[in-house]
Amino acid sequence: MQGNRLTGPIPSSIGNLTQLLQLDLSSNTLNGSIPHTLGNLNRLTSLNLSGNALTGHVPREIFSLVSLSLVMDLSDNRLDGPLPPDVSGLTNLAQLVLTGNQFSGQLPKQLDNCKSLEFLDLDGNFFDGSIPPSLSKLKGLRRLNLASNRLSGSIPPDLSQMSGLQELYLSRNDLTGTIPEELENLTSLIELDLSYNNLDGSVPLRGIFTNISGFKITGNANLCGGIPELDLPRCPAARNTHPTRWLLQIVVPVLSIALFLAILLSMFQWYRKRPGQAIKTDDDATLDDVLDEMNYQRISYAELDKATNSFADTNLIGVGKFGSVYLGTLPLLLKGTSAPDKVAVAVKVFDLCQIGASKTFVSECEALRNIRHRNLVRIITCCVSVDARGNDFRALVFEFMPNYSLDRWLNMNPKSEELKIMKNLSVIQRLNISVDIADALCYLHTNSVPQIIHCDVKPSNVLLSDDMRAVVGDFGLAKLLLEPGSHDTCSTTSTGGLRGTIGYIPPGNSNILCARHILT
């Protein structure tokens, strides 16, 4: 009911709609307070009351709605009062937007209990006090907006622990002290706004601070140093003529660095010897470049966790060397529809503790980013994030094939229950499947740019749709040709040992031929 010029207060009787999933009354002229009866909507996943003239405190009952998982948007109203500790009850919420109200008081430390938060927008209010260092526990947070408040004190260095943070806005407050050098470690950060505060000292020189278009520090008169493009004055060098102090200033840092490097080297050697631990390769450096060229929107870990029932064993449909595949359902916008519809998907989660798993993820992304063919597996989206424990998380989301793999049909146990449902393949079906596979390989070898050699075609990597159409998947070992016009020896962008799965290695792989690959 958004944007309908509705007036008057929100009726308390709306709390009787206990089966309601989404409530959107945004962009109207509603006034009065938010009825506490909204706390009865215990199935509500999304609440949007933004762009009205609502006043008063937010009822505590709303913060107990654990069903809220998508968004709670109360922005651009006249709501006031402190943000109560009860906000900790929103444990499943992904977006909390309170922009443009009159909230006051200190930010509650209990916000760190909202583990699923990805977007926290509290800008344009009257919050005061310091920024709670406990916000650093929100490992999945991608945007933190505290701009245009009355916050004071220093910027907590703990914020550097939010490894997935992409946007940080702290402008137009009363923050003091220096800019923490630890913010250089936020490798995912693309926007940082610290303008119009009372910050002083030197501006860091690494990380986000190397790109003048990525950060703002205007309106902090006492800053110095930084990259030349900032045109700030040099930081004054402290003079010290005492010989003993001068010697200590050199010897102590040198010894500290040497000791640190020795400890770091020992830890690295110990870590390399641990079984089952992944060692990062040069492929990790190209991952961001590959994903930036892909045309689809990435998905968050929280969305995949919900889609697969927290990656439950009952949703597990396959296990491979580099990870597992789960059945899930995602709300996707299909052609000819105006609202998202739940679609069955296959979620391939990579086990990054396995050596080569990260390289396999990059290889699949490189191979799948440009190819489009009815007999090749269709990638829907991908996830590059951190899980609930703060560990790196990589996953690909594919179209679900309800008839599973060709291997399952060819090697079915005659005494199994599956045989009662899945009949043997007919001669026509086998012929059609063979033609589909040949069409897919022909496309990869001749029509895709760059040309691709799959290197691991086998029954378990051939999936079947509901109409028994065969699609080729699993591009983890795929190789990209350096010369798109070549049809003889397939010079690849990487070299190594034998290619393929043990037990099925195409003959002559020391020098892969396109023709040999399609015949095998």
UniProtKB/TrEMBL annotation:
Keyword vocabulary terms for this entry: ATP-binding, Brassinosteroid signaling pathway, Glycoprotein, Kinase, Leucine-rich repeat, Membrane, Nucleotide-binding, Repeat, Serine/threonine-protein kinase, Signal, Transferase, Transmembrane, Transmembrane helix
PANTHER family: OS04G0122200 PROTEIN, OS06G0583600 PROTEIN
Membrane-spanning parts: 246-271
Gene3D superfamilies: Phosphorylase Kinase, domain 1 (3.30.200.20), Ribonuclease Inhibitor (3.80.10.10), Transferase(Phosphotransferase) domain 1 (1.10.510.10)
Annotated GO CC locations: plasma membrane
Entry-linked InterPro entries: Kinase-like_dom_sf, Leu-rich_rpt, Leu-rich_rpt_typical-subtyp, LRR_dom_sf, Plant_receptor-like_S/T_kinase, Prot_kinase_dom, Protein_kinase_ATP_BS, Ser-Thr/Tyr_kinase_cat_dom
Species for this entry: Sorghum bicolor (Sorghum)
Bilayer topology annotation: Single-pass membrane protein
Pfam families linked: LRR_1, LRR_8, PK_Tyr_Ser-Thr
Name of the protein in its database record: Protein kinase domain-containing protein
SMART domains according to UniProt: LRR_TYP, S_TKc
Predominant place of localization: membrane
Ligand binding (ATP): 348
Domain Protein kinase intervals: 311-520
